Every structure is written in structure tokens, then in C-alpha cells.
Amino acid sequence: MVTYTLDTNCIIDLEEERRYSQAVKEIISAHQAGTISVSVVAVSASERQPGDRTMANYEEFVERLNAVGLGELEQLNGIMTYGFSFFGKGYYGGTEEMIELDRRIHNTLFPRIDYGLNDFISRQPVRTEEEEKKLHWKWRNAFCDRQMYWAHAHHERDIFVSGDKNFSELRGMDFYPHGRILTPEMAARELG
Length: 192
Fold this sequence. Notes:
- It is a single chain.
- The relative contact order is 0.20.
- The chain has one domain (3-189): 5'-nuclease (Rossmann fold).
- The strands form two sheets. A five-stranded parallel β-sheet has the order 3-2-1-6-7, with helices on both faces.
- By secondary structure, it is of the alpha/beta class.
- It has helices spanning 8-16, 21-32, 58-67, 96-109, 117-122, 129-154, 184-189; strands spanning 3-6, 37-41, 74-76, 78-79, 90-91, 159-161, 180-182.
- 43% of the residues lie in helices and 11% in strands.
């Protein structure tokens, strides 16, 4: 059975009835019919929320999934990272191989953002508190994106679904050669 992983943007597409919402609904329908397997990634709960906030707890994320009909989907774990992951929703520490894959994904997607938050912040010129807050959000977004794809690759899933063009940088990379990255529309067309 072909496996699909939805990124955070697919969830937002459903919530806000954006461009790809119909395609995401078609993918979910195929999952419900048992012809494919669809998952989301637990790190989506760590993304920046409207109003420049983070979710208070993981249950808030589960409620969000339930509200758009995704509550039954498997939630893939990433690597637990203090201050960014929810307890029990990731692999604590990670092996050297896990960290290396995470670092390679990060460096491919975000060559201008340091892998570590403190390194990224310390390399920036003197700034205001507001500018530093923006840097934190920028790094958090990079962290979540790299962990979404890491979870997809680690769980050896087939199709990563995202409307974010930045993920196309990962196409053909040797660290997960059989994984495919498609927009929701392209992924829905694969359903036949």
C-alpha cells in the first residue's frame, strides 16, 4: 500500500479552505477507502500559530486534527528537542544516524540557517528584542520543516505531500532516494 505524509500546510489548507483543500480531501477519502495510508507529523503541533504563539499542549493539536477530519491519522514522531517537542511525541535523543539525517535535511533545505538555534541567534548582528523574536520564529519554522521530512524518511513513507516549494530541494537526494515529494494536487492525481 502506498503511504502518504501530509505536512502542516495540508492541515491549514483544510482549516482555511485554501488552494489545495480539495486535493487534500481526495487524499483523505482514499485513505478512508483503504486504498492508501495517510499520516501527519507530530511536529506540526510545534509550528507557529496565529497570534505568534505555540500550542499549549499536544491535545490542542489533536483537537485541531479532529476538527478537520484528520484525527484518525497516524501521527509520525520526529526527534524530541527540548523546548520544541511535546513529551512523548518523539524519539528521545536520537542515534548518530538519526541526527546526521536530520542535519543533512536541514542543510539542504536551509543552507543559510544554522542547525542549532543558539548558533543561528549568536551569528546575527546586534538587534532589538522584536528582531530576536522574529529570528526565533524563523529558526522554529526551519526546525519543524526539517523534522517533518525527517519523520517521513525515518518511517520510510512513500509520498511527502506539501505545497511548500522549498521541499523540492530534497528531490533526488541520496539520503532517501525512494521518497517522492508532491504537491497535494499532484498527489491526488496519483490516486488514479
